[in-house]
Specification:
The protein is of the alpha/beta class and 700 residues long. It contains 25 helices and 22 strands. Adenosine-5'-diphosphate (ADP) binds at residues 267, 269-270, 273, 296, 298-304, 425, 449, 556, 585.
């Protein structure tokens, strides 16, 4: 019955040679692989044009007529076979640069054909290069009534004459072979409830849809299944983990927490911070391992929330660690946490890649003896020698830069896994979070500390530069400080540094000493020089800091109120938002000025408009995801790939993601262990997908 595992070699028309190519080029090994090799688009071949109607605006046309003659023209590499093709409205040339033999042996003069291809102008003459050619009978049978599937191929395949059309032929043969042999994969009651067509129909129509409506239905059915299975796995995993992993129980809130809260906290917590601290406390007291992600916009006070939970861990006799994605950020955390805890008997240390051996040894001992309470650092924390005596809580300041696999590595260090809190500064849209962090619980800080005024954002073209300088001068006179940021993109680093230098010099000319102090920081400076400059800026001794994106993370200067972003069109949306988050940290009105040239792509325009329109990180993340697709959000890429979605798109199909999540939760609520006979049909797909996606989570 089920033939899907049959070797592709045996499909009529394929054979060993072509099978080998399909294996190596497209990873198609079996009937099933081919069946799930979907078209990337469809071409409507119901319309036949007349030659008189042709213009080069048309991307593809189809003509009916006869070849009058063949001839070879040109020399050497320009050598080509040309046919003149007529219908009763005119003539056009068909051109082949290779494969002449085949054409001349198979295509006859004066016989009626349907040709299909893209018209171009060459030597003032309309022609079609390498057209597809069909006899009228074959066209009537296979092409006239349906949308034609287009499949991706590779150079190597094309050189062996395996074109999109060849693959379509294989698909056609496959459908003949499989007739009726495709097993349903969803329970009947699910298909009925959600209006899904049977799988066999969908898999036929996705390749050979009769019309747009049947294509839409097939698409929907297949996407639904992909996302539904994914969500079932995620929800199952979540439920399963809650039953499986016992966690440390943090029963009490003790002296560390209380004395910090009462004597050290420099301000009132926001409502959102309080709410989140409660959520986390509840998790850590539940007896199950916490896996929670804390989303909050830049400046919303996540670090403080993390610290208060770390204190709860200490109160219960455990150690804690905080891992940051960069050395600058780790240092910043170390400094601010040390300051906040000043006077409390808490032992905090910093561990990064550049920590000296002597200090490393001290840290190792302190961890072992339990004297070291809080370890802050970069991924150096993942080194094998870092062994805690009693690790209770791991906080990861992720900024999207850690892969999920690294998270698993931290858990592995202990027999009872520590509680895990992941903080992320760029909020990711809910439907994506639900999937990428699918098995984590989500907390959101959706409120900024009081007194912050929303940042005003404007977009200026270069022509406004002088009036912008005037504006900056007035603010500097009022005692405020300014960032000017230049893009730094790996591929053209040299050019970028040139831009930065030129920009710095222009700034110095416009704001000359001794009235003004302008300074510059970038990633190629010695760390010591960079720190010195940053510290001077913090101390208010520098008016304008010209920088690359090194200031994106970790800098907290409340007196800086203007962020000027040069060549803003070259930044991604989430990066623009991160940069803007460097200002607006004090009580004064802050500004973000996006400078661009006149030449803007549509996407760049959309990004700039979005920045001007809103300060809301979630809204920005939504737009970002729509523009870039989820695969491009940093750090989510692996996960997206691992999900192995062929048709569904986590960004574009966000409604369906939500819909299938609800459906998955409902199904599992009724049948948590998937034991009911009507649901057993789901098991093969679930297991297959789970192997692909969740390997990293298998911890022993
Ligand atoms: P995040 O990590 O979310 O970007 P931080 O924790 O670095 O934000 O906090 C940003 C700034 O706001 C810090 O200077 C911090 O001390 C301050 N802050 C945090 N919580 C509050 C609060 N409730 N009231 C006033 N300021 C706060
Ligand atoms: Mg932070």
């Amino acid at each position: 019955m089920q033939q899907l595992s049959k070797d592709i070699t045996y499909l009529p028309g394929v054979g060993p040679k072509r099978a080998k190519l399909l294996n190596s080029e497209l990873q198609i090994f079996t009937y099933g692989d081919l069946l799930y090799y979907f078209p990337y688009k469809y071409v409507d071949r119901s319309k036949i044009y007349s030659i008189a109607e042709i213009n080069t605006e048309l991307t593809h046309i189809q003509l009916k007529g006869k070849i009058k003659s063949f001839r070879m023209v040109g020399e050497r590499r320009g050598k080509r076979l040309v046919a003149s093709f007529n219908d009763n409205t005119g003539a056009i040339e068909l051109v082949w640069f290779k494969g002449w033999q085949w054409v001349q042996n198979n295509i006859e003069v004066d016989k009626e054909y349907i040709i299909f291809g893209k018209p171009t102008i060459f030597n003032r003459q309309l022609n079609i290069a390498h057209p597809e050619i069909e006899t009228t009978e074959h066209y009537e049978k296979q092409f006239s009534k349906s949308l034609q599937p287009q499949y991706n191929t590779t150079e190597k395949l094309k050189n062996s004459y395996i074109h999109s059309k060849t693959i379509a032929k294989f698909q056609y043969a496959l459908q003949e072979e499989l007739k009726g042999g495709i097993r349903e994969s969803l329970p009947d009651y699910v298909s009925q409830k959600y209006g899904l067509q049977p799988l066999s129909g969908a898999l036929k129509n996705i390749h050979f849809p009769a019309d747009n409506e049947s294509l839409r239905k097939a698409n929907y059915r297949i996407k639904f299944e992909e996302l539904f299975i994914l969500q079932l796995n995620i929800v199952r995993l979540k439920v399963g983990r809650n039953n499986q992993f016992k966690g440390h129980i943090f029963k009490s809130v003790g002296t560390y927490f209380h004395s910090f809260y009462e004597k050290h906290l420099p301000f009132e917590l926001t409502g959102a911070q309080k709410k989140v601290i409660k959520e986390i406390r509840r998790d850590m007291g539940s007896g199950l391992q916490m896996n929670r992600i804390l989303q909050g916009d830049v400046g919303s006070g996540k670090t403080l929330v993390a610290l208060m939970n770390i204190l709860i861990a200490l109160d219960n006799g455990y150690q804690a660690c905080l891992m940051a994605p960069t050395e600058i950020l780790a240092q910043q955390h170390y400094r601010s946490i040390s300051e906040l805890l000043f006077g409390l008997p808490v032992n905090v240390r910093l561990l990064t890649g550049s920590t000296k051996k002597k200090i490393r040894d001290e840290i190792r001992q302190g961890l072992h003896s339990g004297e070291l309470h809080i370890l802050i650092g970069t991924h150096a924390l993942l080194e094998d020698y870092v062994q805690f005596s009693d690790l209770g809580l791991v906080v990861i300041d992720e900024q999207h830069r850690f892969g999920v696999a690294q998270r698993a590595k931290l858990w592995q260090k202990n027999t009872v896994p520590p509680h895990v809190l992941v903080m992320t500064a760029t909020p990711i849209p809910r439907t994506l979070a639900m999937t990428v962090y699918g098995d984590l619980d989500v907390s959101v800080i959706d409120e900024l500390p009081p007194g912050r005024k929303p940042i005003q954002t404007v977009h200026y073209y270069d022509s406004k530069r002088l009036s912008m300088f005037g504006f900056l001068r007035r603010l500097i006179e009022a005692g405020q400080q300014i960032y000017v940021v230049y893009p730094l993109i790996k591929e053209s680093e040299k050019l970028d540094y040139k831009d930065l230098e030129d920009g710095y010099e222009a700034m110095v000319r416009a704001f000359p000493p001794p009235d003004y102090v302008v300074a510059c920081v970038h990633g190629q400076m010695k760390p010591q020089d960079k720190d010195d400059t940053m510290n001077m800026f913090k101390a208010g001794k520098i008016n304008i800091l010209v920088a690359t994106t090194v200031i994106e993370v970790g800098v907290d200067v409340p007196n800086a109120t203007v962020m000027v972003i040069e060549s803003a069109e070259r930044f991604g949306l989430s990066q623009l938002h991160q940069l803007r988050g460097r200002v607006g940290r004090g009580g004064d009105q802050s500004y973000c000025i996006l400078m661009t040239s006149y030449k803007l792509s549509n996407d760049a325009k959309k990004r700039l408009e979005t920045m001007v329109r809103t300060n809301d990180g979630f809204e920005i993340a939504e737009v970002d995801m729509k523009l870039r697709g989820p695969g491009d959000l940093d750090g989510t890429q692996q996960s997206g790939l691992a999900f192995n979605l062929k048709l569904a798109n986590l960004a574009k199909d966000s409604d369906l993601v939500q819909y299938t999540r609800d459906a998955a939760e409902e199904l599992l609520a009724n049948d948590p262990a998937l034991e009911k006979p009507e649901n057993s049909i789901l098991l093969p797909s679930l297991n297959k997908q789970q192997n692909i996606s969740f390997d990293w989570r298998v911890i022993s």
